[in-house]
């Protein structure tokens, strides 16, 4: 399984502090959470405030990672997935998260489904299979059998209890939780008085204000056919961006690439899109919607987005056509 970065180059484990005194300074830090490097950049006159605020924001991201990440041993969702009775208590935070997940499921008419884990495992999207040389395309019978364990209708919440009805055995938080963590980290930074910041987990980005001088943050979006090149640049202030692409996480079987966003009806990777980029005011929803929209028909995505305030989308289809909602502005890269 291979992972490729999106939009932002991550400087691993690097801290940068400007030496200019009495002026806005830049503070930057990266830490390994959610199985990837998350970076925070802060501009502020008080470098000590920037550092302490970033520390608190990272602590919040770590809290959410350890609390809800289905791949984090001992998390609420890990306990649910590995329990015999498939039941766990949720607090108000958990109830809020899964309420939004259910809304995405309904919006997609069932295409977005966080019980997709068994199909992902069948294809080989697990840590154990990263270096495997024996991956093969699942047979029709294997896919049909595995599909019986995928059904979000079996995910129930009652009296603050989250439980799974048979035959569903697990849920996967990978399609939305990083975005939620970034949105909460942003709230921490704002509460500390930070007015200019950039938070990224590569495919999810959350922004506070603008860069010094009221300049917008410029974010490059990769070309899904040529990931070392940019398809364009978006300029954002105080917004969030979520990106899903067929080049992010994939396996190779007999020299062909198969990405991890699966159509649960066919059991195969979605083939009508190569990238979806979502802009709105909440990194949680931007992350959630980018995957949800990847699974939906393009016309239905556009109809929904145009009916919403402060929501924008860009879709690159299988033929590399760029389809945008009316307010999505993409600056082409000069060659």
What does the secondary structure layout of this molecule look like, with pairings?
Elements: E1 2-3, E2 16-17, E3 25-33, E4 36-44, H1 47-68, H2 76-82, E5 87-89, H3 92-107, H4 117-123, H5 140-147, E6 155-158, E7 161-164, H6 177-191, E8 197-200, E9 204-208, E10 217-222, E11 230-236, E12 240-245, E13 249-253, E14 256-259, E15 273-280, H7 283-295, H8 298-306, E16 312-317, E17 322-324
Antiparallel strand pairs: 1-13, 2-3, 3-4, 4-8, 5-7, 6-7, 8-9, 9-12, 10-11, 12-15, 13-14, 15-16, 16-17
Helix pairs in contact: 1-6, 3-7, 6-7
Textual characterization of the structure:
The strands form four sheets. Strands 2-3-4-8-9-12-15-16-17 form a nine-stranded antiparallel sheet. The chain has a three-stranded antiparallel sheet with strand order 1-13-14, with no helix packed on it. The longest helix is centred in the first third of the chain and has 22 residues, at 47-68. It is globular. The protein has helices at 47-68, 76-82, 92-107, 117-123, 140-147, 177-191, 283-295, 298-306, and strands at residues 2-3, 16-17, 25-33, 36-44, 87-89, 155-158, 161-164, 197-200, 204-208, 217-222, 230-236, 240-245, 249-253, 256-259, 273-280, 312-317, 322-324. The protein starts with a strand and ends in an 11-residue tail after the last strand. Residues 1-21 have low confidence and may be disordered. It is an alpha+beta fold. Helix 3 (92-107) runs parallel beside helix 7 and helix 6 runs antiparallel to helix 7 (283-295). The chain is built from eight helices and 17 strands. Helix content is 29%, strand content 26%.
